[in-house]
């Protein structure tokens, strides 16, 4: 990630963010702060931030340490071992079964121990620290056309240590298997703090290192030797024969490798591979050497449709004979959801209407021709009546299985394939967006069965769900026999918890009978550990426990997981005892189920907001990217808010000064999460509610009040310009402003213009009469445009008139209310909204459109007014208000021609409404080449970047944008947001123009 740690808010002397409080450190751990190089945190907020992962579970840890070196890890482990304190290593915390939460000292490796240490392309090996995100590792390997092959779907947000801990794998496990196949050697810290290296050993070497009465490391080797010698048959008998099984310890691989190829002499063991899937319970890995795979030359895909899920399942085994790289299933629930989306509605409508399930089949190929041939071979065999784009090879695979598929589509170029993959993933976010008490939770989500048993498994699973009065969608990795199933359950009710246990229990029976595993992907954790006994039997359960004891005699490493005492019905995030009390009456309209509470409980913890720009959907979450602190991610804020309102933090904490300043203050209100988060958590809206209530109770500071009333100040500034522009530039004035009002001395305040946009227009009047116009538009004089950037408003008037629009400036309007809204003065914002709606709604009824130059004001009308007001008038205003570039695009208005290449940075609020690309479309129509950046917020966020305690964060976020701008091919930068333009100007570049100004140049 593009983060310069020196620019984080916590390190700016003026910011009051205090992430390193240790006043609550337990006595026996107090020395850690002194001994460990990285941060050591035992405060309540830090603990709560690490109390959840992406599972249905929650458990408050003892503290959190961010090690900087293996030595730090040893220090923590030795110290905790001396005092009998449990330890939990953690990566991105994206686990789905609850194995990344525990009452333990959490070691977060992603902060400092995330380096790629060595890449040896010739040997096909890389060595890295365990905190490196898989996405970052692969980005470095891509330069050598190599990759770390296991591809968990959330790889960009999850770390190498987590992949080892969970033995992760992904859609391409048919080709690559799991992480265990790629671990060559690990540097580890054992339960007593000893440093060790685990790698391949011959059985003789194992023997030499084993001593049941020796040091810890010797006892470990002795126990491994015992298992190899005494338990091999038991393991072979009990373990399922599957490509995917991550339940229990990785004993099947141990035995297989120990027996050697074809059970001949000369086998070996690799204790590093034994750690795969051990969920942090055996040892802490600090560095790993992994083997790599070449990036495939190309791929091709086919989508096969079926009238029925079971028929699709029956087709998996014959399809596998064609040697695909992936076979993924989507059932009718997900297809219906994808059909409803703007992005995939068209693709789904191309499928036969009766199609109720699809299989996506992907092939790796050396060339496009080979890819086409492989798809043709598949279709010739499995959908013989389908039209084919290519010809199968003469020696194509022919299976004798009955034909179930009804139709097929092919995807050969990169974009088509990406559409198929995205469609497969499109419905899940909708399932996860429920704000009801019932949620699609993960607890029996990834069982695996031999693919030939999929039909039986799917139909029995559906019966079990029906018996429990619930349903789920069925999707994902049908090829290796792993179906993702998230039943809809309300765990806040005891009946819901009972249903959850019943479903898990009965599905485990089915899976065991069919030769499958309760976890083919996500691990044991809190949800599955108890079922390992049933899956493997009492004897192997005891073997697991003996192995655990050999590695970790006092059971200090993530105790409970894999073979411990975890009970799936305990420590639920929402259990029957859960209570939520916001502590105030929300002021905004919350149309979603369960209102404010539903939104506060919506985050499911996936960690999607902790990813780099290109993987999170673009905007979300700029503050995390800039600081890499959990508390500055959407997940961190959502967790802390829910915990503060459900008794995990002291009563009333959510409205305390501390909470507002530590948890909420750095949220810049960009609305990125409302669009990019799979569950659409709207943190900006939650924040303004909270801030408003806080103002009600405690009053607001001077700076907030000043910025909330920026319209009054601007009016004054314009009336007294140019004097008002000189004053802040007098010697000492900036420092005085910082000291008195808290405006960062580095910032130059926007200049005021004596002649406002309204003055200019009143003087000039319209140039296109109402009678000759095709459309008539009220140009709303937003505060920035009117007082600070009237030239942009003038450009808008000219371009609109050139397009034949009759333009007027509306009477009776006031500032949009955006500044007071963002600052949490909701009653002021509501008054402004009422005035503007009263002035504009009747004009809209007369046929006028409303056009706004400043994006955040346009979005205020289009979106935020609906949170403040109800009724037809506000709906009318919301529907008939347009950003100026949106207006030109939506009505196909003529625009002046121009040429050249432009780098376009859209405004985050318009991105949240998916309205940012109108500008690019219009400019391209005008003749420009446009590189529309996949950028986030500029970091200015209205007044945020002007504020002294936010300046460092604002710069850090802005520097991510500057990097993107510098990498873009455009000759000129354009940005519609006034704040974005200021930020880009302040960070070293020239202040870029608004896109409408560029268009106006062509007049
Ligand atoms: C939307 C979504 C999709 C997912 N898709 C997939 C998928 O396709 N395939 C898949 O396999 N998983 C998937 N997962 C689950 C999870 O993302 C992966 O298993 C991931 O690899 C875990 O990485 P992490 O860094 O988040 O690990 P964490 O959750 O932080 O930790 C995972 C386990 O590893 C242990 N661990 C972490 N670091 C170390 C260390 N240094 N030493 C020893 N033990 C350690 C932890 O104690 C924990 O038990 C998905 C999760 C989500 C939310
Ligand atoms: S806020 Fe959204 S993206 Fe972030 S963890 Fe929660 S659900 Fe995932
Ligand atoms: S509004 Fe923006 S800064 Fe705030 S949590 Fe959402 S994505 Fe992060």
Short description:
By secondary structure, the protein is an alpha/beta fold.
Molecular structure report:
α12 (309-320) runs antiparallel to α17, α13 packs across α16 and α36 crosses α38. A hairpin with a 7-residue loop joins β19 and β20. Residues 1-7 have low confidence and may be disordered. It contains 44 helices and 28 strands. It is of the alpha/beta class and 1003 residues long. The protein is globular. The structure holds flavin-adenine dinucleotide and iron/sulfur cluster (SF4) (2 copies). The site of one iron/sulfur cluster has 15 residues, from α23, α24, α26 and α27.
Main structural class: alpha/beta
Average pLDDT confidence is: 93
Q: Describe the main β-sheet briefly.
A: 6 strands, antiparallel
Report strand %: 5-15%
Strand order of the largest sheet: 17-14-16-15-19-20
- Cα radius of gyration in angstroms: 30 Å
Broad shape: globular
Count of helix runs: 44
Share of helix, binned = 40-55%
Number of strands: 28
List all distinct small molecules, including ions and cofactors, that are bound in this structure.
Answer: flavin-adenine dinucleotide, iron/sulfur cluster
User: Any low-confidence stretches, pLDDT <50, length ≥5?
Assistant: 1-7
Distance between the termini: 42 Å
């Amino acid at each position: 990630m593009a983060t310069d740690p020196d620019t984080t808010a916590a390190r700016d002397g003026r910011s009051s963010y205090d992430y390193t409080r240790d006043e609550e450190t337990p006595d026996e751990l107090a020395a850690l702060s002194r001994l460990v190089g990285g941060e050591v945190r035992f405060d309540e907020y830090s603990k709560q931030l690490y109390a959840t992962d992406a599972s249905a579970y929650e458990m408050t840890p003892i503290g959190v340490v961010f090690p900087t070196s293996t030595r730090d890890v040893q220090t923590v482990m030795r110290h905790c071992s001396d005092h009998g304190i449990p330890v939990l290593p953690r990566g991105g915390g994206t686990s789905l079964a609850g194995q990344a939460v525990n009452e333990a000292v959490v070691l977060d490796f992603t902060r400092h121990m995330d380096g790629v240490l060595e890449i040896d392309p010739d040997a096909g090996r890389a060595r890295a620290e365990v905190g490196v995100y898989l996405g970052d590792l692969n980005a470095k390997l891509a330069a050598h056309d190599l990759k770390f092959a296991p591809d968990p779907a959330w790889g960009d947000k999850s770390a190498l240590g987590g992949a080892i801990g969970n033995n992760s794998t992904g859609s391409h496990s048919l080709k690559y298997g799991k992480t265990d196949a790629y671990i060559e050697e690990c540097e580890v810290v054992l339960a007593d703090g000893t440093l060790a290296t685990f790698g391949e050993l011959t059985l003789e070497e194992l023997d030499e290192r084993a001593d049941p009465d020796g040091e810890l490391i010797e006892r470990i080797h002795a126990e491994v030797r015992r298992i190899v010698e005494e338990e091999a048959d038991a393991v072979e008998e009990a373990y399922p024969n599957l490509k995917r099984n991550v339940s229990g310890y990785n004993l099947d691989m141990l035995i297989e490798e120990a027996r050697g190829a074809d059970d001949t002499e000369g086998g070996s063991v690799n204790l590093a591979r034994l750690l795969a899937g051990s969920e942090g319970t055996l040892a802490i890995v600090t560095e790993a050497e992994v083997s790599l795979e070449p990036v495939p030359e190309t791929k091709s895909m086919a989508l096969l449709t079926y009238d029925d899920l079971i028929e699709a399942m029956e087709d998996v085994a014959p399809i596998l004979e064609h040697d695909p790289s992936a076979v993924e299933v989507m059932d009718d629930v997900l297809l219906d959801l994808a059909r409803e989306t703007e992005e995939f509605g068209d693709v789904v409508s191309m499928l036969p209407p009766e199609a109720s399930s699809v299989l996506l089949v992907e092939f790796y190929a050396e060339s496009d021709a080979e890819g086409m041939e492989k798809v043709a071979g598949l279709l010739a065999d499995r959908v013989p009546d389908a039209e084919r784009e290519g010809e199968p090879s003469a020696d194509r695979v022919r299976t004798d299985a009955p034909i179930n598929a009804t139709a097929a589509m092919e995807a050969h170029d990169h974009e088509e394939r990406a559409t198929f993959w995205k469609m497969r993933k499109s419905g899940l976010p909708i399932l996860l967006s429920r704000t009801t008490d019932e949620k699609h939770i993960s607890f029996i989500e990834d069982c695996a069965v031999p693919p030939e048993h999929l039909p039986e498994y799917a139909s029995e699973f559906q019966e079990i769900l029906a018996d429990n009065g619930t349903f789920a969608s069925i999707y994902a990795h049908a090829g290796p026999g792993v179906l993702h199933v998230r039943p809809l359950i309300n765990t806040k009710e005891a009946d819901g918890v009972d249903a959850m246990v019943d479903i898990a229990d009965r599905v485990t029976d089915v899976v065991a009978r069919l030769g499958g595993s309760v976890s083919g992907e996500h691990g044991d954790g809190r949800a599955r550990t108890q079922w390992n006994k049933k899956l493997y039997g009492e004897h192997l359960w005891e073997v697991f426990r003996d192995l655990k004891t050999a590695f970790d005699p006092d059971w200090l490493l993530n105790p409970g997981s894999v073979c411990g005492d975890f009970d799936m019905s305990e420590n639920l995030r929402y259990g029957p005892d859960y209570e939520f009390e916001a502590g105030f009456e929300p002021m905004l309209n919350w149309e979603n189920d369960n209102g404010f509470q539903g939104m506060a409980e919506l985050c499911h913890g996936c960690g999607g907001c902790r990813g780099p720009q290109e993987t999170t959907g673009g905007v979300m979450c700029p503050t995390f990217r800039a600081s890499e602190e959990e508390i500055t991610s959407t997940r961190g804020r959502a967790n802390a808010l829910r915990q503060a309102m459900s008794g995990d933090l002291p009563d009333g904490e959510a409205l305390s000064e501390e909470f507002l300043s530590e948890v909420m203050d750095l949220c810049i209100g960009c609305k990125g999460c409302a669009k990019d988060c799979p569950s659409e958590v709207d943190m900006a809206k939650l924040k303004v509610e909270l801030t408003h209530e806080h103002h009600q109770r405690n009053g607001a500071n001077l700076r907030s009040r000043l910025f909330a009333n920026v319209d009054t100040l601007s009016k004054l500034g314009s009336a007294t310009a140019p004097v008002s522009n000189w004053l802040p530039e007098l010697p000492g004035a900036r420092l005085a402003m910082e000291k008195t009002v808290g405006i960062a001395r580095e910032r130059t305040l926007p200049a005021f213009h004596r002649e406002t946009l309204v003055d200019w227009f009143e003087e000039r009047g319209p140039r296109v009469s109402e009678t000759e116009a095709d459309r008539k538009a009220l140009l709303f004089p937003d505060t920035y445009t009117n007082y600070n950037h009237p030239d942009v408003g003038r450009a808008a008037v000219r371009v609109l008139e050139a397009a034949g629009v009759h333009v007027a400036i509306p009477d009776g309007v006031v500032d949009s209310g955006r500044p007071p809204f963002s600052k949490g003065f909701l009653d002021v914002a509501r008054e402004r909204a009422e005035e503007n709606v009263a002035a504009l709604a009747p004009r809209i009824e007369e046929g006028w459109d409303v056009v706004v130059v400043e994006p955040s004001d346009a979005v205020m009308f289009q979106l935020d007014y609906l949170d403040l007001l109800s009724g037809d008038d506000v709906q009318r205003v919301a529907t008939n208000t347009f950003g100026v570039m949106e207006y030109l695009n939506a009505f196909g208005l003529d625009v002046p021609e121009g040429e050249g290449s432009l780098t376009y940075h859209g405004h985050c609020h318009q991105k949240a409404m998916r309205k940012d690309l109108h500008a690019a479309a219009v400019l391209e129509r005008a003749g420009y080449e446009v590189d529309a950046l996949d950028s986030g917020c500029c970091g200015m966020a209205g007044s945020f970047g002007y504020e002294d305690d936010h300046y460092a964060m604002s710069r850090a976020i802005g520097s991510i944008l500057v990097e993107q701008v510098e990498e873009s091919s455009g000759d000129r930068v354009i940005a519609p947001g006034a704040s974005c333009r200021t930020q880009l100007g302040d960070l070293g570049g020239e202040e870029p123009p608004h896109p409408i100004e560029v268009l106006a140049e062509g007049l």
